[in-house]
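A reminder before we start the practical. When you read a complex entry, don't treat the lines as separate problems. The point of joint prediction is that each chain is placed relative to the others, so the output describes one connected object in space. Small molecules and nucleic acid strands, if listed, are placed in the same frame. In the example below there are two entries. Take a minute to note the order of the lines before looking further.
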Amino acid sequence: MQKEILEPRASADLRVYAVWFNMVEEDARTRWPADLLTDRRVTHFWDEEKTVGRWFAPRAEAPPMVAVRAPDSSGLGQPVLWDVYLVYGPDARWDEEPSSLRRWGRTILRTREQLREAVTALAGGPSGTP
Amino acid sequence: MLRHHSLPIRRRLGVRLVGPLFVVVLGMAILAGGCGPGVPTLTDISSVDTLKARFNEDAGKTRIVLLLSPT
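Here is the predicted structure of the whole assembly.
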């Protein structure tokens, strides 16, 4: 994310919300990798109860999200959605649910090319190229 | 005579000007530093509403939500 998405688009007007929570046995708040995403456009949240992942999980199975899911996504259908990115356009507004979801995918590594394409379409390519 | 005295004064003046200028430039760099690396903080949340509020505050920008585990 930092090297492939943010650094090549240093002037892009985008924001990233990194929501962290425990999913495997080794996870812990104390193991948060503070040096992984240091770009000032990133806001980090710790979600001990996995509320955000639980909130998105059932919605990921609904048609609006299925329609923009990265084709190579895998490991879906779990009670908590994680190892996921969700890309929203500038016109997005979160009332009952966030609107203008352009692309999402799981795992981030497996579907990173679709992430890059979505961000390029919205915020431009590396160094601000259209 | 005048020449011997004026050079140190100029140097002192230079120091007096460069010092505040450095502080101003440093302050501007800190204020303008919207995209570069920073010192991240981790904010605890207990409901999706915190994320929702932040999401709506940033309306007009491309936004990316990442759901991650530390390891």
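Discuss with your neighbour: Helices of chain A lie at 2-6, 51-59, 63-66, 112-123. What might explain this?
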